[in-house]
Amino acid sequence: MYASSTVGFGLTRSLKMSSTVWWEGVEKTRVLIAADSGCGGNKPGELLTLRHPKSENGTCYLFNNGMLQEIQWFKQSYGSWFLGDYISQDGSLYMATPVDPVFILLPVFDQARMKKGDDPGKFRQLDEILFVEGYPEYQHLLSLAEKCMEIVCQTQEVGSMKFYRLDNSKVLAWLTCKVRSLKKALPALDKNYAAQDEKQTLVDAVSIVGEYLKTEPWLKLLYDRLGLEFVDPTTKETNTETFPNAIENKMEYSNSLQERANKKTGKPGKQTKQAKVETGSKNIRDMFSRACKKNLILDTAMELESFRVGLTPTVFYIPGFVTDQEQTQLLDHIYGGSGSKWKTLKNRRLQNWGGMVHEKGLVPQELPSWLTKITAKIHESTGLFPSNINHVLINEYHPDQGIMPHQDGPAYFPVVAILSLGSPVVMDFSPHLRLRSSSDDDISRECGGPERDNQHSFSVLMMPRSLLIFKDDAYSDYLHGISDSPTQCYKQVVNETEALAYSSGDSRKDGDNKILHRDQTRVSLTCRLVPKVHKNLFRF
Ligand SMILES: O=C(O)CCC(=O)C(=O)O
Ligand SMILES: [Fe+2]
């Protein structure tokens, strides 16, 4: 019972929904605009009633070809639809937009682990987790949950059975990535965001993500993680000056379809004024207006805080630090010259920019503008360097090349920022010899030997376009290196969630086995500051 017609953009389908699924007591045709999922023919998918992740109210979602979509509701005061030779009295417009299923499944997984206090809770099987009383349609999401929940869960396999348990630190890392990518996207979506300062955009991004999160524990933990002061948005009035309200706009809207709530409370299933009052996610305009309140505090240091990874307190990993376009431009410059800049070493090629580094300081050479553009961005956005970065080493590694475990020299200020381009790679950190027990005087590790102090060693997965920063303890007390193997295991890396959440489409990762296949060249830019500069060396 579906009629379809195309209007303006995407694919419009008018859905005839039976009373049991949609609106009690009435059979109505409604118009829904949904992305054409490509391979589903004219099948519009299923409408599932699931609990809204924030309000917990029964909310209608469209599940189509493995994609979960939330539904926005727009209603003009007067209007109907002409659909072929049929008139639909209800002039509402429903619009389905993809929603990350992790948001929707988060409360279900949270509840299923039956966590008490500090106890991390129980590992459970998926079908058990997705058994939610009163909401049988969660079972439709079995295969989807299997695909996406590993990002926020610990998993255990016993024979052919797989068990899942939500992991708070993974959830927070994933949420931080969501906030970061939204913060990046907002200025391109709306010129108001482009005009405001970065801190405010971050606050706005958290607020929007917060529309899909329960305040306790997730939203509060997220604010905490980002170093923001939590302010309950529901206690503040909506800023209706920035964005016109529903009446001014002659449009009413909601994305929370309340048939379940109405059924439960015995309210008539009609589009009464009350039924339009949403309880779930707010419409996008409302979200934005609420997000615009300027009552949260942030500074660069606190922002950087949210990128901390692992237990060593001085390692930061920022995914997507440069865009695809910036990556291409940088590679064009690196490979664009005559080629004479490259110095071939035993296990890699190297370009040295900024001058010669000696034990006593730098004999400087001006950095080209394409490099100062990126070093200035690192300097300004991290706030970790006391003055401009003045030295950059560019390393090129083929898949079977690496760099031996080493410590960076004493001439540098003890902060390193490494921008990765091209192939992903795993960097290993192991404690410096002097930190290990006195009987342990094996120096093989300095020469790339296989021995590893597993208790304190850690690794970082460096995805293309990411920035890795390490400083202080991680700079002075650890050796860092990259093995020369074309396959690397990333099981033990401290930033798996951050790295993978940002690049889920990367084909070179071998999902379950956690093996990285390095099948491309990697280029890195090691950006540092040499504080002592011999300015007058060549002046007479
Ligand atoms: O290529 C990398 O990621 C590391 C380079 C490095 O450690 C160095 O240049 O000192
Ligand atoms: Fe290094």
Automatic annotation (TrEMBL):
Chief localization: nucleus
Function summary: Non catalytic subunit of RNase H2, an endonuclease that specifically degrades the RNA of RNA:DNA hybrids. Participates in DNA replication, possibly by mediating the removal of lagging-strand Okazaki fragment RNA primers during DNA replication. Mediates the excision of single ribonucleotides from DNA:RNA duplexes.
Species annotation: Brassica campestris (Field mustard)
Family: Belongs to the alkB family.
Any one GO cellular component localisation term in the record: ribonuclease H2 complex
CDD domains: RNase_H2-B (cd09270)
Domain Fe2OG dioxygenase: 388-531
Name of the protein: Ribonuclease H2 subunit B
PANTHER family in the cross-refs: RIBONUCLEASE H2 SUBUNIT B (PTHR13383:SF11)
Localization in the cell: Nucleus
Key words of the record: Nucleus
Classification via Pfam families: 2OG-FeII_Oxy_2, RNase_H2-Ydr279, Ydr279_N
Alphabetized InterPro entries for the sequence: AlkB-like, AlkB-like_sf, Oxoglu/Fe-dep_dioxygenase_dom, RNase_H2_suB, RNase_H2_suB_wHTH, Rnh202_N
Superkingdom of origin: Eukaryota
Lineage: Eukaryota, Viridiplantae, Streptophyta, Embryophyta, Tracheophyta
